[in-house]
Amino acid sequence: MLLKPQVSVAAVAICLVLFVGLKTNVLCEAQMNITYRAWKPNSQLSYNFPERELEGVMARPNAAIAFTGGGVRSYLASLGYLAGFQKLGLLDKVRYVSGVSGGSWALMTYGYSSLSQGDDETLLGPVLNPEDITMDKLKAIDPQCLRGMPVNKNFEAILAENLLDPFVKGEDVWFNGVNDVFGKPSGVPSNRVPVPDSSTLDEILARNPLLHENSFVLPRSNRPFIMFGGAYLGPHSLTPFKGKNRTYTALEMTPYYVGEPHVHNITYMSNKGKTLKQLVGGFVETFAFGAEAPTHGLSNANGSLSSKQTKMDRLSPVHQATLASFAPGGVFTELPDILSFHMDPLYNMWSPANPSPSNNIGVFADGGVVENIQLISLLQRKVENIILFFNNNQALNSQFDPKKRPVKTTDMSDDLPTFFGINPDPDSELWDLNRNQVFSDKDFAPVAEGLIKAQLSGNGTLYTTKLTTVANTWYGVEAGFTAQVTFVYLSRTLGWEKLLPADIRKHITPSKDPNNPTNVISKGTFKNFPNISTYTQLHPAAELANLISDMCGWIIAHNAEAFKRALGAH
């Protein structure tokens, strides 16, 4: 009788070993010699941004819009805001468009979808006047419209199915979720590497005659320069990392290059105290990211390098959005591999600024682990007009007075105050936002007050101000640069709600203190509208998806003059 439990335990152990073994990231792939361009800073704070070589990018005004993470909520809100800008013809006034996590899902589809070619209004969805919204209209989504992606496919169910399939590699679990819900249905290629324009593609092919143009994909026409925000957590050999010694950095992914602008030496530490020092920073062309380290680094600010590449099929727009949205990464790197099912995105990470670079398999994660919106990247580029869309789960507390007490996580998302050196959740196990200060803490209260005042006005929660940077040595941000920054916070919009037909309005009006925009509906199809849960509302009904995007599009259209000024286009 004692043998039975022993046999059961052994059987479970064998199955677990086989299961985890099949989930590992061990790859046996053919290698190809490639020659690629690389860049490093001209000096410590004089950055060499490759897109400055692209006439089509630099011909656009020096303005940017950026979207936070936030799962399907941010995906839908971002599409709505983009639809509003598109309707006003303002996207031509934008040089950079940036997204993290759910925001990167929106930009992946906006940037690379093959649906509705030449018709962005259909692609992004209509911006309806609230008076014209009906339940029948909310239930309908054009098959060529991006809003339908999370409605038609269940992200959570696909993740679970892939996680339980022993023949799916761990590294492919999250990718399959992103691809099956957002990539494949919208026609975004999952096996082609993005390039910014046809001239760049011709140069790559001239340097690499074994490559074929079918291995690459161009963004849709008339797009701003697209940036995805990820996070580099450290060398995989040191995982699990020591939680109290996080040394994470922000990774930039674009159709032209991947990397980090600021170069510095970082010491990484495992939970057992083992350390490794690594030079981090610099850019390589996107198709070369993850390649083997070359025999030498750059001697000048830019140049050509050569080495072997095995993972070109893992650098598509879908893969970039997968890395940018891998939310569990911050937690998984503090766990043994067996408990993370080898799901962490792994790429070879070396710096072209290193005179003698060496191979070092690195662990990557959702950009929200370090910076949930790419403000720092835009300040490094000296972008003069910046609009930040905080598509967060936490509703803005309309009763919060920043002059009377410190901000709490129940007042607003902690992403925003950390840029002012104020972190209401400094010990979070999910992310590390403690190095993000770029503005004076004295500037936080006016921003918070401005947002709350706008929220109570009912016409959109937005506030524009000029802010001057303070030095940030971790990310290499200079003090003294002044930018016009517009903060837009996802919130109930009471003026818009009042214009809705009564039968629609009743579905989104909370029973408790309905005129307080902090409160949201607690049940039904529109539960938590518009601040639906990042983790449990990934498969919304069409009615909910459309209403979030409709409201966000209306906010842009209704505040057209304010957004023109925010982009410096007035």
Summarize the structure.
With 570 residues, the chain is α/β, with parallel strands linked by helices. 31% of the residues lie in helices and 18% in strands. The strands form two sheets. Strands 1, 2, 3, 6, 7, 8, 9, 10, 11, 12, 13, 14 and 15 form a 13-stranded mixed beta sheet that branches.
Describe the structure.
- With 570 residues, this protein is an alpha/beta fold.
- The chain has 20 helices and 15 strands.
- It has helices at residues 3-23, 55-58, 71-88, 102-112, 120-124, 135-139, 149-152, 155-164, 170-183, 198-207, 317-324, 329-332, 337-340, 375-380, 415-418, 444-457, 494-499, 502-508, 542-558, 560-566; strands at residues 32-39, 63-67, 96-100, 193-194, 216-217, 225-235, 249-253, 257-269, 275-285, 302-309, 346-348, 361-366, 385-390, 462-468, 482-489.
- Strands 1, 2, 3, 6, 7, 8, 9, 10, 11, 12, 13, 14 and 15 form a 13-stranded mixed β-sheet that branches.
- Strand 2 (63-67), helix 3 and strand 3 (96-100) form a beta-alpha-beta unit.
- Helix 3 (71-88) crosses helix 19, helix 4 (102-112) runs antiparallel to helix 11 and helix 8 (155-164) packs antiparallel against helix 9.
- The longest helix has 21 residues, at 3-23.
- The radius of gyration is 23 Å and the shape is globular.
- It starts with a helix and ends with a helix.
- The relative contact order is 0.17.
